[in-house]
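in:
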């Protein structure tokens, strides 16, 4: 079974993002909702190369399914990019996720996806 390797989920509000994501850092996040039985359903996978707090808040109000979020800090933008790629593939790519395309490496880098080499 696929794992995001992130902590618990939180209601997706500005207040919760600010209360949970307290340091300026690269990181990863997942947006979705919780089923009645408590399972977190992933709808979108994302990353931030520098400031996860700012990046995740750009999605507030984007889709009604984005009711909860999970996140994790990353030690570098490379680490965040590689984790975003793994999560994107593990959770169904653009067939199941709202992500329209494969994750793109940061401008100026030539990093490749650790899963498919894109």
């Amino acid at each position: 079974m696929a794992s995001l390797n992130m902590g618990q989920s939180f209601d997706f509000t500005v207040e919760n993002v600010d209360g949970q994501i307290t340091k300026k850092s690269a990181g990863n996040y997942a947006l979705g909702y919780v089923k009645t039985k408590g399972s977190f359903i992933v709808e979108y996978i994302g990353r931030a190369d520098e400031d996860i707090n700012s990046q995740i808040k750009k999605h507030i109000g984007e889709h009604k399914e984005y009711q909860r979020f999970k996140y994790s800090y990353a030690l570098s933008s490379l680490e965040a990019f590689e984790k975003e790629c793994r999560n994107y593939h593990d959770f169904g790519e653009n067939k199941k996720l709202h992500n329209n395309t494969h994750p793109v490496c940061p401008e100026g880098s030539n990093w490749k996806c650790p899963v498919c080499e894109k």
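note: Strands lie at 10-11, 27-34, 40-48, 68-73.
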